[in-house]
């Protein structure tokens, strides 16, 4: 059937064109049965006899076909819309996942840096404490010599202790400040990751 073949080609080309083509076919068929043009319902009313009933059957069949094609087109449109929404949502999910991975990598790097700074701080502190205790031992050995320079040794010892305390305080303050900055940065990245 050439009309059916054309309808199949239209359906592949564009669903809306199929509905329009099928909608026109009943009008043309009704016009041919009446021998003229006009609204499709008039032919059925004019031929109300037994022949008119035969003409109504193809029109009803075409109407059912048109309704099926309309439903088919609606389903295709719904599916296309759903597929487009799925693609957009997938892009959003992929972007959020990549952002999460980047934030996790930053948090890991900051935690590694914090751990390194803690180890470095502990090593420096231990070294300074050893240096201070070595100085105290040397000074006490000098004190045991019972020299007349007791006041000078006491003054030098006080100066060394002051220098050691000041250096230790400055180092502790500097490392504590760096440690707090790294913790705050890691906390911010952790908050970003949770959000």
UniProtKB/TrEMBL annotation:
Keywords: Coiled coil, Intermediate filament, Keratin. Residues 1-55 are annotated as: Disordered. Residues 1-195 form the IF rod domain. It comes from the Eukaryota. It holds the Pfam family Filament. Gene3D superfamilies: Single helix bin (1.20.5.500), Vasodilator-stimulated phosphoprotein (1.20.5.1160). GO terms for molecular function: structural constituent of skin epidermis. GO terms for biological process: intermediate filament organization; keratinization. PROSITE patterns: IF_ROD_2. GO terms for cellular component: cytosol; extracellular space; keratin filament. InterPro entries: IF_rod_dom (IPR039008), Keratin_II (IPR003054). Belongs to the intermediate filament family. PANTHER family: GATA-TYPE DOMAIN-CONTAINING PROTEIN, KERATIN, TYPE II CYTOSKELETAL 5. This is KRT5 isoform 7.
């Amino acid at each position: 059937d050439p009309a059916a073949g054309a309808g199949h080609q239209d359906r592949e080309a564009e669903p809306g064109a199929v509905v329009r083509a099928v909608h026109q076919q009943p009008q043309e068929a009704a016009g041919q049965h009446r021998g003229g043009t006009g609204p499709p319902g008039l032919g059925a009313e004019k031929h109300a006899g037994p022949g008119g009933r035969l003409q109504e059957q193809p029109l009803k069949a075409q109407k059912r076909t048109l309704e099926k094609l309309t439903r088919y087109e609606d389903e295709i449109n719904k599916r296309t819309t759903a597929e487009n929404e799925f693609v957009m949502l997938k892009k959003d999910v992929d972007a959020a996942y990549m952002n999460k991975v980047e934030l996790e990598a930053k948090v890991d790097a900051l935690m590694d840096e914090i751990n390194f700074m803690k180890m470095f701080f502990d090593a420096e502190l231990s070294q300074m404490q050893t240096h201070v205790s070595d100085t105290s031992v040397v000074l006490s050995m000098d004190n045991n010599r019972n020299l007349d320079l007791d006041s000078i040794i006491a003054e030098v010892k006080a100066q060394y202790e002051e220098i050691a305390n000041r250096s230790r305080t400055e180092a502790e303050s500097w490392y504590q400040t760096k440690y707090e900055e790294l913790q705050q940065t890691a906390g911010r990245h952790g908050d970003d990751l949770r959000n």
